[in-house]
UniProtKB/TrEMBL annotation:
Pfam families: CTP_transf_like (PF01467). SUPFAM superfamilies: Nucleotidylyl transferase. Residues 2-126 form the Cytidyltransferase-like domain. CDD domains: NMNAT (cd02165). Keywords: ATP-binding, NAD, Nucleotide-binding, Nucleotidyltransferase, Pyridine nucleotide biosynthesis, Transferase. Pathway: Cofactor biosynthesis; NAD(+) biosynthesis. The keyword Nucleotide-binding applies. This is Cytidyltransferase-like domain-containing protein. One of its GO terms (molecular function) is adenylyltransferase activity. NCBIfam families: nicotinate (nicotinamide) nucleotide adenylyltransferase, PRK00071.1-3.
Length: 144
């Protein structure tokens, strides 16, 4: 099932927190392409726009959580999307890689991130409950 609207942070807030979290890393560029697009925004459209912007001279790495990737077959134009970019699934410690179908394992790179033992949903719950998020997000995002 896809996330309900009220389970997701406001897009402008997510954008600003991403800018803050990556501001000290020259290898990241944060884009508003999806925020500026009218109507529904699909990953395939974003990837195509980046390929066009960079004259197909780049390799796009689509980094997402492993659980989100399990639903890739339900994404708009998923087969085309899989051909246009390299998917990287971020996993939390102890994630059961057997959940990924064999066909996915052929097209997917796995990136275990030890620090991701807490989810964005957990962070939002902590904020709503007035609990501390120090050390769970970059300092700049915590201040935001």
């Amino acid at each position: 099932a896809h996330k309900r609207e009220n389970d997701i942070s406001d897009p402008e807030h997510r954008y600003l927190m991403t800018v803050l979290a990556t501001s000290n890393n020259k290898f990241f560029e944060v884009s508003k392409v999806e925020l500026n697009r009218p109507g529904p925004s699909y990953s395939i459209d974003t990837v195509k726009e980046f390929l066009k912007k960079y004259n197909h001279g780049v390799k796009i790495f689509f980094i997402t959580g492993a659980d989100a990737f399990l639903e890739v077959d339900s994404w708009y134009k998923s087969e085309e999307l899989i051909k246009l970019c390299q998917f990287v699934a971020a996993t939390r410690p102890g994630y059961d890689l057997d959940k990924l179908d064999k066909k996915f394992k052929k097209i997917l790179k796995i990136m275990e991130i030890p620090a991701l033992s807490i989810s964005s949903t957990d962070i939002r719950r902590r904020i709503k409950g007035g609990r501390n998020i120090k050390y769970l997000v970059p300092h700049e995002v915590e201040k935001y």
